[in-house]
Amino acid sequence: MIGFDGSPDALKSITEGKLGASLAQKPIEMGEKAVESLKTLFEGGTVEPNVYTDTQIIDSSNVEAFQKDLTEQIERADAAKK
Asked: Model confidence over 21-54: pLDDT tens digits?
């Protein structure tokens, strides 16, 4: 069975062997690309009608690396707010 979103509970379930995989949408990347697109528009530029972001299948082979990367992204975002 697989889940959707790569939530903390899903990652824990994958680590525990209770969930086979989860599809992560990468909301931090979505936010960054949205801000970049708005900045381009405000500066008079144009953006494509559709801006795509990555997705990633998380399973037992990469759950630890995904968690580490996500933690680092959150820490960078928190630091940028200060």
From this structure: 999 988 888 998 999 999 999 999 999 999 999 8
Helix and strand numbers (H, E) in the chain are 3, 3
* Structure tokens that stand for 61 in this block: 């082979």
Q: Where are the alpha helices (DSSP H) in 3-59?
A: 8-15, 27-42
Place of tokens 């759950």: 63
The whole-model pTM stands at: 0.74
Domains of the chain (ranges, CATH numbers):
2-81 (3.40.50.2300)
CB 40 within 8 A of CB 47: yes
Q: For residue 62, what is the DSSP state? A: T
> Residue 59 phi/psi, 5° resolution?
-140, -170
pLDDT of residue 13: 94
